[in-house]
Design a protein that fits this description.
The protein is α/β, with parallel strands linked by helices. It folds into three domains: 242 residues, P-loop containing nucleotide triphosphate hydrolases (Rossmann fold); 169 residues, 3-Layer(aba) Sandwich (Rossmann fold); 76 residues, no CATH class. It is built from 20 helices and 24 strands. α15 packs across α16. The C terminus is likely disordered.
């Protein structure tokens, strides 16, 4: 439906914290039946703004109008009473209750004093079927995958019949099929006249689902633009970060040296007979559809998973890598796709996370020199421009991009020769992406090599020197830079997908 009345209007919203002005005279409006994309780098003010709208933060000045009425006092309870619901990156449901119980929490149907379980399950099941989500409503949330939990969180928000829904990075853990379901849900919300604010670092998604894009930079609104006028991501990025997409992917010419890694006939869980060669100074892309086996290959090379057949040759010598400790010895570093659960030690501080595999450099006779350990971590924080409060800050408190840089610092400090980066920029703003790409260049200039796994084809095409395409666990082809094109790479990626059903499963 065409955008209608203003549901939410912000006038001159300001919010400051000690030593920082998070929001500076923010003005915009979102209308009924409209999806407004809210974009900006980390630190631009998006999260603060959403917390002001939902009442989690009190604004310092300015006005919030909801359906034409000024919201003088706000709180999370008041905002929900008004019909404002937010779907955050974290799963916001009660983990020890069933899906149906989460929907009816505090409002269970009853027959006299007894809960009417049959009605609860029946109505919850009917609602999920209506919006296209296939989840057993009797299952506890704790039993679900992260993606299923996210879908339940989204469904619970819709169950409340909201007037304004705020989606904060809603697809971060969703498959492509689940993302399509989400987009269908958003289109249905539009038809019902709801207003929607959609926050995502995936700018292609913004163009797929949004009607208008509002850009925040340094706490202020750069402008609001109809998606049709912007047309492409290439025109949006300069508004956010002040650089073009070509400048982001710019890679200095580096002379490619000798072979430093060769994988021959590698077979294991979800992949078979894989050959990969990496030379000093080059980025080798590993591309495929979700579920093709890319991560399994990376984990086998690193020693995190076992492989059944094949060999790994490092600097001309066959190397027995069967566990991560072997990779440490032979100079292979790995930044995993699941940064939170496999990359960082979330309850530990920044210094610990950088030095955990590098204490041998600051140790003498088995005794750690803590002053040297501190300085070693600080040197890499400075070198990589990692934004922290202190080295003793818990790493889980950092942004996703800074967490990635902490892991990269760990491997740079280890002086690894081969870096495996698995989806290194997922969930990271475009400014931090550009910083990580710059780090790639520095790694290559030192005569090291990179294996890059990425589902984002513009990134893969912009950074890789060669791309190896994996399809359904098998090698589908190796593509040289002169032959790069999205169409060609996707065609190879689907080469061994044998049926429409299998295709739906892997994407």
């Amino acid at each position: 439906m065409p955008a209608g009345r203003e549901v939410l209007k912000l006038e001159n919203i300001c919010k400051s914290f000690p030593a920082i002005k998070a929001l500076d005279q923010v003005n915009f409006a979102v209308r009924a039946g409209e999806v407004m994309g809210l974009v900006g780098e980390n630190g631009a003010g998006k999260s603060t703004l959403i917390k002001v709208v939902t009442g989690a933060y009190a604004r310092d000045s300015g006005r919030i109008l909801f359906e034409g009425e000024e919201v003088v006092k706000n709180s999370p309870i008041i905002s929900k009473e008004l019909g404002i619901y937010a779907v955050y990156q974290e799963v916001m449901v009660a983990p020890d209750l069933s899906v149906a119980e989460n929907f009816f929490l505090g409002n269970q149907p009853k027959i006299g004093p007894v809960i009417d379980w049959k009605k609860m399950y029946r109505e919850a099941e009917r609602f999920l079927e209506e919006i296209g989500i296939e989840i057993d409503v009797k299952r506890n949330i704790r039993e679900l995958s992260v993606a299923e939990g996210r879908m339940v969180t989204i469904a619970k928000s819709l169950w409340q019949k909201p007037k304004l829904v705020i989606f904060d990075e809603p697809t971060a853990v969703l498959t492509r099929n689940e993302t399509r379901i989400l987009f269908r849900i958003i289109r249905d919300l539009k038809k019902r006249g709801a207003a929607i604010i959609y926050i995502s670092h995936n700018l292609e998604e913004v163009f797929d689902v949004c009607d208008v894009v509002t850009v925040l930079k340094d706490g202020a609104v750069v402008g609001s633009y109809p998606v049709e006028e912007l047309e492409t991501v290439d025109r949006l990025i300069p508004l956010m970060v002040g650089r073009t997409i070509e400048e982001m992917y710019h890679k200095r010419e580096i002379k490619v040296g000798q072979e430093i890694l060769r994988v021959e006939g590698l077979s294991g869980n979800k992949f078979q007979d894989i050959d990969i060669c990496v030379r000093a100074g080059e980025v080798v892309g590993l591309f495929g559809l979700v579920g093709a086996g890319r991560t399994e290959i990376a984990r086998a090379i690193y020693g995190a998973d076992n492989f059944d057949q094949g060999k790994i040759v490092i600097n001309g010598r066959e190397t027995p890598i069967r566990r991560p400790k072997d990779s440490l010895i032979h100079g292979v570093g790995y930044l995993p796709e699941d940064r939170k659960n496999q990359g960082i030690f979330p309850q530990q501080n920044v210094e610990f996370n950088i030095n955990i595999i590098n204490l041998d450099k600051v140790m003498k006779a088995g005794i750690i020199n803590y002053n040297q350990a501190y300085q070693q971590a600080q040197d890499y924080v400075d070198k990589l421009s990692i934004k922290i409060g202190s080295l003793y800050q818990q790493v889980s408190e950092l942004s996703g991009g800074n967490q990635q840089k902490v892991i990269i610092a760990r491997w740079l400090c280890k002086n690894s020769d081969i870096f495996i980066f698995d989806e290194p920029t997922t969930g990271i703003d475009v400014g931090t992406k550009a910083e990580i790409y710059r780090l790639f260049g520095e790694i290559l200039e030192q005569g090291k090599g990179i294996i890059l796994i990425s589902s984002y084809l513009p990134e893969m095409i912009g950074l890789a020197d060669r791309i190896i395409v994996i399809s359904n666990g098998k090698l589908a082809g190796e593509v040289e830079k002169k032959d790069f094109s999205e169409e060609h790479l996707l065609t190879l990626a689907m080469k061994n997908v044998i049926s429409k059903e299998k295709f739906k499963e892997v994407v």
